[in-house]
Automatic annotation (TrEMBL):
The keyword Lipid biosynthesis does not apply. Signal peptide: none annotated. Belongs to the LysR transcriptional regulatory family. It holds the Pfam family LysR_substrate. InterPro entries: HTH-type_LysR_regulators, LysR_HTH_N, LysR_subst-bd, WH-like_DNA-bd_sf, WH_DNA-bd_sf. It comes from Clostridium boliviensis. This is LysR family transcriptional regulator. Keywords: DNA-binding, Transcription, Transcription regulation.
Length: 310
């Protein structure tokens, strides 16, 4: 029943028989024939071919879930064998958004490589929703994020605490009236701006200016919207983007105000013509964590990586 699962799974991933056939190096008619034989054996269709892109039937959803469970079990056993043979090799797959893939993961895997050059590391850059699905399927060992994932499905490992700041183009006239609230990049990078004596900016002062925000499913967007609401206004949103670093660079061009993490400000090169302000700590503070699938086998490579972040 599952002997041809790689063909089914490739169509599911690509949502296209044509692209799946190309990836599998077989013809589309051959792939379609193979899928039809599997469906005939099951007695129910797996794919809904009436939609574009190709979707799953109710049976197909259950079939994919079963495939992913099998893949996860096989991967766990393969990892166990690697460790049991004491090879101190293997692979480690880590996912994160552009920010984490660019600035957080690289120094950690560099340290891992120093001690264990035989471990191959694969970095996947994507949005949280897609990364979460890959973590559940077993194709990723860890993802790093600043949001909260379901505790019944994932184990979390704290990496560090971060804070949201607000970045305002220097040319905006409001800045000259708020000098007592402004913080420097040096204060941000040394965490000095989080001292209690540093004043929290009255966010309502920016209600008449445009904002560069992230898309609604992003934690930065949710927190930014909540902060604005707590200060009595709804932000005038000029753009909604996928990546925090993109929003920050657009803000730096002078087009609007953005919420930006001190992680990005600490790791990225200093950009000119911006003014920074501290936000309410309880609403702006969050944890960066590494997540793995609950109850999965922790490989040697995963175990050694966790030691680096503890």
């Amino acid at each position: 029943m599952f002997s041809g699962r790689k063909y089914v799974y490739e169509v599911y991933k690509e949502k296209s028989f044509t692209r799946a056939a190309s990836n599998l190096y077989i013809s589309q008619p051959s792939l379609s024939s193979t899928i039809k034989r599997i469906e005939a054996k099951i007695g129910m269709p797996i794919f809904d071919r009436s939609t574009t892109p190709v979707g799953l039937t109710e049976c197909g959803i259950k079939y994919i879930q079963a495939i992913e469970s099998i893949m996860s079990i096989e991967q766990d056993f393969h990892n166990y064998l690697d460790d049991a043979r004491n090879l101190q090799t293997g692979t480690l797959a880590i996912g994160g958004s552009n920010l984490f893939a660019s600035y957080v993961i690289p120094p950690l895997i560099s340290s891992l490589h120093h001690y264990y050059p035989g471990i191959n590391v694969n970095i996947i850059e994507d949005n949280t929703s897609n990364l979460e699905s890959q973590l559940l399927s077993g194709s990723l060992d860890f993802i790093v994020d600043n949001t909260t994932l379901c505790e019944t499905q994932f184990d979390s490992f704290l990496y560090k605490e971060e804070h949201l700041m607000i970045a305002v183009p220097e040319k905006y006239k409001i800045n000259k009236y708020l000098k007592e609230y402004q913080v420097t990049l040096d204060q941000i990078r040394t965490s000095a701006c989080q001292n209690p004596e540093v004043l929290v900016v009255p966010l309502a002062k920016f209600k008449d200016y445009p904002f560069i925000m992230l898309k609604p499913n992003n934690d930065t967007m949710r927190r930014g919207t909540q902060l604005c609401k707590a200060n009595g206004f709804k932000p005038d949103i000029l753009f909604e983007l996928d990546q925090q670093s993109t929003a920050y660079h657009i803000a730096c061009s002078g087009m609007g105000i953005c919420f930006v993490s001190d992680t990005l400000l600490c790791k990225s090169p200093a950009l000119k013509d911006m003014v920074y302000y501290k936000l309410d700590e309880e609403k702006s503070k969050r944890n960066i964590c590494f997540f793995c699938k609950k109850n999965r086998y922790i490989t040697f490579a995963m175990s050694e990586f966790l030691k680096l972040i503890s």
